[in-house]
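@channel sequence for tomorrow's demo:
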Amino acid sequence: MKHRKHALAGVVVATASALILTACGDPEPEMDAGATSANAATEVAAEETQGNQRIDFTLPDLAGEERQFSEWDGDLIVLNFWATWCPPCKKEMPLFQDTFDANQEDGFTIVAVAVDEQTATQHFVDDFGIGFPVLIGQDDAVAIGREYGNRIGALPYTVLIDREGTILDTHRGEVEPADLDEWLEAHL
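structure tokens (generated this afternoon):
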């Protein structure tokens, strides 16, 4: 029994280490070839999702109400997978909020899927004044992200979806103002 506990602890540590390596952006250049090949696999998976129809899913919002992604059909959607503990995620949130405020009347929305706990997410949303839809997923959010091409669970991970539900683009790492401007110019 003692051996099984140690083996389980080793699995937990290895899993946590893998998640830390893949979270919050691109791997550092000095990482090993295994991380680089996982990174390349995510890029291929993300590119393969472009042109596909969006995948519907249901997750709770901050009030605990189940929300179905299809309720935003007809809008140009930025679907963003993020976490409160992720520095690049925090950095892009004010840009998302400003862009949402400026364009929501034109049929544009941002749906942020937090890979996080409800309490931490609520505090973050309150502190940053986030007004666009925020859903909570934790493990479910990671699984949904994989369906959208984020095989290694990198955060932040963003998907652009047109009004007909077609995946137009995917972006691993922090979204810069130029990225968002380009998307809006081409599709809004």
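heads up for whoever presents: The first helix runs from residue 2 to 22.
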